[in-house]
Every structure is written in C-alpha cells, then in structure tokens.
Amino acid sequence: MKRLRLQSSFELLITLAVGLAVLLPIVAVAFVQISNANASLASIEAQQAASKLASVATVVGSEGPPAKQVVEIQIPTGVRYIYVGTVNNGVGHEIIFVVSAPNGVSYVTSYTPINVSGSLGGIVAPGTYLVNVTALSACPHITQFPCIYMSPVV
C-alpha cells in the first residue's frame, strides 16, 4: 500500500517536471518578445514627439521673430536624452531622442528645414511636458544665425 502511494507521488512529480520543462522556454520567449515590443513602442512614441516638435518649429520659423508657441509633448519610458539642433545642442536641423533599446541605445531623429537650437536634456522622465518654441533673430550660442530655440516650460 505504501509503495503504491510512493509510486503515484513520483509519477505526479515526473509529470510536473516535464510540464515545467516544456513551459519554461515558452515563457522565456514571451518575455523577450514583450521586451522588444516595449522598446519598439518607446521608439514610436519618441518619433511622434520629435515630429511634433519639428513641425511646430517649422510653423514658428515661418512666422519669424518674435513668434512663440507652447507645445505639449509626451515622453515615453526609456528616453535617456533629447538633443536639439546637433548632438552637442548646437545649431542644426534635427531633434534627436536617445532611447534605450534591448541592445544599447537608438537615436530617433526628426528633421526640420529651420535652424533649431535649445536645451531639452533635462526632460528624461516619462510624462507630459510643455516646451517653449520661440523664433529668435539670433541664436544664443551662435549669434550670426536666426533660429528656433526650444526650452522646457518651468
């Protein structure tokens, strides 16, 4: 009688072990896919924010100084830094979001035909932010160029 109980317990243990051995790789693959999907979603949201800033910069630039507009942007999870103009925040034509990816970082950029400059590097926490987009007759860093200057609303 005791041997029969031991055998059924052992059979149950073997069945559970085989079930776990089959289920564990499936769960691991699911976690990897979810991680990749989250990184893709963060890149898409960063692209939307960068495109919104670029389009507002184009509109404000076409109006000329002293035009100004406040725009609301949504920063996704995983944004490490935001560059305006160039990667050293000089005068340029790009808005660059540095986003964490599973294999390092990715650079999400949006082009604007207008010279842009600014300082949005302090905006890295996920959330909604207001950004001042101002047309200037002379950029703060390089005064011989007119540009659009972007700064967070404080």
Overview of the structural elements:
By secondary structure, the protein is α+β, with helices and mostly antiparallel strands. It has one domain. It has 1 helix and 6 strands. The protein has one helix at residues 2-63, and strands at residues 68-75, 79-85, 92-101, 104-118, 127-136, 147-152. It has a 6-stranded mixed beta sheet. The protein is rod-shaped, with a radius of gyration of 26 Å. It starts with a helix and ends with a strand.
Key features of this structure:
single chain; 154 residues; alpha+beta; six-stranded mixed beta sheet; rod-shaped
Low-confidence stretches: none
- CA-CA gap between termini: 78 Å
Task: Note the main sheet.
Answer: 6 strands, mixed
Strand line-up across the major sheet: 1-5-6-4-3-2
Radius of gyration: 26 Å
What's the count of strands?
Answer: 6
* String of helices and strands: HEEEEEE
Class derived from helix and strand content: alpha+beta
**Percentage of residues in DSSP E strands:** 35-45%
